[in-house]
Write a structure and sequence with these properties.
The protein is mostly helical and 950 residues long. The chain is 64% helix and 5% strand. It contains 50 helices and 12 strands. Strands 1-3-4-5-2-6 form a 6-stranded mixed beta sheet, with helices on both faces. The protein has a 3-stranded mixed beta sheet with strand order 7-9-8. β4, α7 and β5 (165-172) form a beta-alpha-beta unit. The longest helix is centred in the first third of the chain and has 18 residues, at 115-132.
Length: 950
């Protein structure tokens, strides 16, 4: 794919004269639609147009017309055209066209998954351009676009819908490429305008013939035009075929044929034109058709066994015949239909040999591996070690930006190889790993099963089972992962490094499953050996693992110390930054901090770690950062911001096709909606968990169980709430309890008691007793224990102690709950006067947190006591309008008015750009607008709203 300037690329040199000055015929409706799209973008709203049709029907011509029109209207035009060879290319042509910065390139080189880096880099570049002028992004022949560009086209039109950007794709209607079909589906859901270019009417074809010949076609010529089936390019070529053969006579303004000997079929027409060329030109065109639509003259000369200078006469003839264009740095067929016609006139055996030879020559001169790979595929598959090596390199280069395409290519390469060929097994193992990074997890596991059915060597089987285990762990199915790990570890003769990886993954799996004893048994000698490693990632991973075992044993101070050391070590060692969640040190540190007296530090740790991961393009980790921030913000009682982070987690996971954090993020959203009082939305989130996550609920099963229990409790189904908790919280060991932040623990006891299942309440109390008995116990543990004891034993003193403890903890919702519980107990004793202040404080805290349902319940209690109550000051979920905006949303408005992009706003506020994206979406929804232009206008009309937001 190459960046183009459609005006500059429009034919103006030799070989292209026929197009110069030709009018665009028969596309008035389509051009009117394009003008509407340009007007919409000028007005501040993004738009997307898909131009679809058969080859030669005029898609490129329409884009060229649009390019000129957009430039005349003041648009900044970014135009790229794909080539058939781009289908296996790594990187994105759009990124090259936008000239990404060197800093981004360094970041991309540091990670094996560049998808987020790619999307964010192109987003930033386009947003920056759109601030200065409306932008038109034109992609021609999108059916051949590189996989990374297709990812951009699937994702960014939705992300940048509020920016002044027009996206226009031209695509062949008959394409069968699955990734292109997904682009079409996503753009259709987004509401893209679809322009299908059908055959032109006969009258328009006659107008085109008149434009080419300078005279009206005779009835005989008009009859022949019916044979092109309404295809304007074929019509032009047919007319040119007559003109070039001097068989057209113009008299009295009418062009007529001297005889009917010109072939009607396009391929025969091109062949006839080749027959009139010198042999050098014919051979050049044939070799060029093998090399691609654009080709290097030096490479063609090598294939012909000639010096480039000796081909100049052939080049001259091909240019003069209008078959090639020489306007760019490489020779190019004037239309791909011409290349195809020449290519298809070669015998299949000849094509196979020429593509194979092209692959060898291109490999020898260091051409792009994607280009070599295309020729190997076209030759019918790999035939030697060099070909397989080249294709494997292509697969691995492609995997960082398009893992699904890399997996497909790996399987395609493996197909012709013998069943037990080690190269085949390695390729299929890689394919499974790459599929595991996408939503195609089930296909990845099916591929693992199919490959395991072959008789594999122990080393091959162990590596494949490790990949399967990591896929299962990423999907949250830790039990299935353990099965693969146990079978792999039973295999003989495994190298020490592979065995250590298997054991580390197994130990982590035990932690995920809450079996800390098994994790510690797996650890025999493993941590000690890891500390001696020269690999910083191994050392940091060992520190995190030790911290995890300390944490789930209730040794919180020791866990915190190790987590901080691991985070500090990772900050000094770049290699440690690429550990997978939750072994990312800062992510784990945040989890530990949330359960300690240093909750306030959690936000700083998450914010810094998230922005570093974002800057380095560690896209696979971003959903986890957002989900962790959502949990921490919920613990702080900032429900609106918690919901934004959970939504951002889902958004990034959707863009990158990551599924693991979805149950946790959905559960947080369900809990937020329950506290807000929107039970219908809470049900929707829990249904989405059940429909989309499968076994991935296992890892976050406690979150899902808690959300289900809270929903049942809110609906008045107390027994169902207790039952939902029963499978998860009956263990008196602290490990299960510590998987949830402390403010949730008293709620579990409260629901269990309401559902008449005291065993759950006693189990939670027992786990808290164990935690409190630790020498390094945190104050928050004692506070929560007092709260739980107060609920269990109706102990006013314990609840009063909990209220006092929560006041310094920063946990607003926990304090509100303790105040309400204490108020209930005091009121039950008949001392209404003493109870009212507790309810007042609980109501204020609930309102400040955004817990409107809690606030309404508390206000109802106060009214029962004869206290007059008002509406909550915090109101962000009611009728749309300025008053419904949250404090965080209001902070964005003056920055938008000042013209800052989302990236610049994120940098100013020191938050993630994805958080800003979600806030902007909420602002638009609440104000009933679609663009930043409308927001700026409304802010100015509001009179001071932007200043008040500051």
């Amino acid at each position: 794919m190459r960046s183009t300037n459609a005006v500059g690329d429009r034919p103006g040199g030799r070989g292209s004269q026929v197009m110069t000055g030709l009018r665009l015929r028969g596309r008035d409706r389509e051009m009117a639609a394009v003008r509407e799209a340009l007007d919409a973008v000028r007005g501040g709203r993004g738009a997307c147009v898909v131009v679809e049709g058969a080859a030669g029907v005029g898609k490129s011509r329409l884009l060229a017309e649009l390019d000129e029109m957009a430039r005349r209207s003041g648009f900044d035009v970014v135009s790229v055209r794909a080539d058939e060879l781009d289908q296996y290319a790594a990187g994105a042509a759009l990124q090259s066209a936008l000239q990404s910065s060197g800093g981004s390139e360094r970041a991309a080189a540091a990670t094996d998954d560049q998808r987020l880096w790619l999307l964010d880099g192109i987003t930033d570049a386009l947003e920056d351009r759109a601030q200065r002028a409306p932008v038109a992004v034109l992609v021609d022949d999108a059916q051949w676009a590189d996989p990374a560009t297709l990812l951009v086209l699937r994702t960014l039109p939705r992300r940048l819908a509020a920016s002044r950007i027009l996206w226009v794709l031209a695509v062949r209607s008959e394409t069968e490429r699955p990734t292109v079909a997904r682009v079409r589906e996503d753009l259709e859901r987004l509401g893209a305008r679809w322009l299908t270019l059908g055959p032109l009417p006969q009258q328009e074809l006659q107008h085109i013939a008149a434009d080419v010949l300078g005279a009206k076609p005779s009835p005989g010529l008009a009859r022949l035009l019916r044979g092109v089936a309404g295809n304007p390019f074929l019509a032009i070529e047919l007319v040119r075929a007559f003109a070039d053969a001097d068989t057209v006579k113009v008299e009295a303004g009418v062009a007529s044929l001297l005889h009917d000997g010109i072939p009607v079929g396009f391929r025969r027409s091109v062949a006839a034109r080749l027959d009139r060329l010198p042999e050098d030109a014919v051979r050049l065109l044939q070799i060029g058709s093998v090399l691609g639509r654009e080709f290097d003259l030096g490479t063609a000369a090598r294939m012909l066994g000639r010096q480039a200078g000796s081909l100049l006469s052939g080049v001259e003839a091909a240019l003069n015949a209008g078959l090639l264009s020489g306007d760019g740095p490489r020779l190019a067929f004037r239309h791909d239909l011409m290349r195809q016609a020449v290519h298809e006139n070669l015998a299949p055996a000849v094509l196979t040999a020429l593509h194979r030879e092209a692959a060898d020559i291109l490999r020898g001169i260091g051409a792009r591996s994607a280009e070599v790979a295309w020729h190997v595929v076209m030759s019918g598959g790999p035939v030697d070690d060099d070909a397989v090596t080249t294709l494997t390199t292509t697969v691995r280069e492609l995997s960082s930006s398009a893992p699904d395409a890399a997996a497909d290519l790996a399987q395609q390469i493996a197909g012709p190889l013998p069943p037990y060929d080690r190269r085949r097994i390695a390729l299929l193992t890689d394919a499974a790993e790459y599929l595991g990074r996408t939503r195609r997890v089930h296909q990845a596991l099916d591929l693992v099963d199919a490959t395991l059915s072959d008789r594999l060597e122990p080393l091959q089987e162990a590596r494949l089972r490790l990949v399967a285990a990591e896929i299962h762990q990423a999907a949250g199915d830790d039990a299935a992962a353990m099965t693969h790990l146990q079978q792999a570890l039973a295999l003989p003769g495994l190298p020490a490094d592979l065995r250590v990886r298997l054991l580390k993954t197994k130990a982590t799996g035990h932690v995920y499953l809450g079996d800390i004893t098994a994790a510690e048994k797996t650890d025999i000698g493993l941590v000690e050996a890891s500390y001696r490693s020269k690999d910083p990632a191994v050392v940091v991973s060992a520190m995190v693992f030790q911290s995890q075992t300390f944490f789930y044993r209730g040794r919180l101070a020791g866990a915190l110390e190790l987590a901080e050391k691991a985070t500090a070590r990772a900050g000094m060692e770049s290699g440690a930054l690429h550990l997978r969640p939750p072994r990312i040190p800062a992510l784990w540190l945040a989890t530990v901090l949330t359960a300690t007296d240093r909750l306030a530090d959690t936000e700083r740790v998450l914010r810094e770690g998230q922005r570093e991961a974002e800057a380095l393009g560690l896209g696979w980790s971003l959903p986890h950062w957002h989900a962790s921030r959502a949990c921490a913000l919920f613990e702080l009682g900032a429900l609106d911001d918690a919901a934004v982070e959970a939504e951002s987690s889902l958004m990034v996971a959707d863009e990158l096709e990551i599924t693991q954090p979805t149950p946790q993020a959905r559960s947080v959203l369900a809990l937020v909606e329950i506290r807000r009082g929107d039970l219908a939305k809470a049900r929707d989130h829990l249904r989405a968990v059940e429909a989309g996550s499968g076994t991935s609920t296992q890892r976050y099963g406690l979150w899902v169980s808690l959300a289900r229990a809270c929903l049942a409790d809110a609906e008045g189904r107390e027994a169902a709430a207790a039952a939902a908790l029963g499978a998860s919280f009956t263990d008196a060991e602290p490990a299960r309890l510590l998987a949830m932040p402390p403010s949730h623990w008293p709620g579990i006891v409260r629901m269990a008691l309401r559902g008449e299942d005291p065993s759950i309440a006693r189990a939670v109390s027992g786990a808290l007793r164990t935690l409190a008995e630790q020498q390094d116990s945190q104050q928050i543990i004692g506070t929560v224990r007092a709260h739980v004891d107060g609920l269990l034993h109706s102990d006013r003193g314990a609840l009063a102690s909990a209220v006092t403890g929560y006041r310094s903890s920063g946990r607003r919702l926990a304090l509100a709950a303790a105040c309400e519980d204490l108020g209930d107990l005091v009121a039950e004793s008949g001392d209404i006067t003493s109870a009212i202040p507790y309810f007042d404080e609980a109501g204020e805290l609930a309102a400040a947190s955004g817990a409107l349902r809690d606030h309404e319940r508390i206000m109802w209690r106060l009214r029962q006591f004869g206290v007059r109550t008002g509406a909550p000051r915090h109101h962000t979920t009611g009728a749309p309008g300025w008053e419904s905006l949250t404090e965080s949303e209001r902070k964005l408005i003056p920055l938008v008015v000042d013209g800052l992009t989302n990236r610049a706003i994120a940098d100013r506020l020191y938050v993630s750009v994805h958080t800003v994206n979600t806030h902007m979406k909420h602002i638009f929804t609440k104000l009933g607008i679609n663009t930043r232009v409308e927001l700026t206008r409304l802010a100015i009309e509001q009179g001071g709203i932007a200043d008040r937001a500051r």
